[in-house]
């Protein structure tokens, strides 16, 4: 008999879902900018996620207020006959390179005019700190867990906030190489609880076969 069964602690799962591919032909680091919608491939990813969660005991589907997250979450909520909630705490990380064309390799940071922004990549100095992202994300996870004990909840968010939340859960360092994040488009990072205790993290890529051949802008 597990400790959870012995104590009666409910087993609860909070799924952190990254949004699908965005229509971004210019390679802009869009961050929190409005107006960036899902691409055709991204819409197919959202539908695949809906199929992935269909029939599961999901109590709530909640998304970042950004358009790409809302468009990813809507088919999931519809498949489960749930109203879609919005939580600003799971929004994309703040980034001062927002709106720039950066491409792979972070070409913008080679411009001397930006060097004051990149002096400390461990924080990172160009945007919202990793610790602040963890603070707001874990608060949202905690509320989702406590609102539906013994069930599942879905939070549709963004790559970097999801990744640093996972790093914290797995007691990894927050500073990292963005190219090594295990958080592909439309991926599912699941936090498993027994009562209020985190007992494990799992990761799935329901849309692996739909991933684009060319890597996305880091953090997008």
From TrEMBL:
Gene3D superfamilies (UniProt xref): Phosphoglycerate mutase-like
A Pfam family the protein falls into: His_Phos_1
PANTHER family hit by this protein: BROAD-SPECIFICITY PHOSPHATASE YOR283W-RELATED, PHOSPHOGLYCERATE MUTASE
Protein name: Histidine phosphatase family protein
Annotated organism of origin: Kineococcus glutinatus
């Amino acid at each position: 008999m597990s400790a959870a069964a012995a104590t009666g602690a409910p087993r609860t799962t909070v799924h952190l879902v990254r949004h699908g591919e965005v229509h971004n032909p210019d390679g802009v680091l869009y961050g929190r900018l409005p107006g960036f919608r899902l691409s055709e491939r991204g819409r197919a990813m959202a539908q695949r996620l809906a199929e992935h969660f269909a029939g599961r005991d999901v109590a709530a589907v909640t998304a970042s207020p950004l358009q790409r997250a809302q468009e990813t979450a809507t088919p999931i909520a519809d498949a489960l006959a749930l109203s879609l909630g919005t939580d600003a705490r799971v929004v994309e990380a703040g980034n001062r390179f927002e709106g720039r064309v950066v491409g792979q390799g972070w070409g913008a940071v080679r411009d001397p005019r930006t060097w004051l922004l990149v002096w400390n990549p461990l924080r990172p100095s160009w945007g919202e700190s990793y610790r602040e992202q963890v603070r707001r994300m874990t608060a949202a996870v905690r509320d989702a867990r406590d609102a539906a004990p013994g069930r599942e909840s879905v939070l549709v968010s963004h790559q970097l906030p999801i990744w640093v939340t996972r790093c914290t859960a797995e007691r990894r360092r927050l500073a990292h190489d963005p190219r090594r994040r295990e958080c592909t488009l439309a991926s599912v990072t699941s936090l498993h609880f027994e009562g209020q205790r985190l007992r494990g993290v799992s990761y799935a890529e329901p849309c692996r076969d739909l991933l684009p051949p060319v890597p996305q802008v880091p953090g997008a």
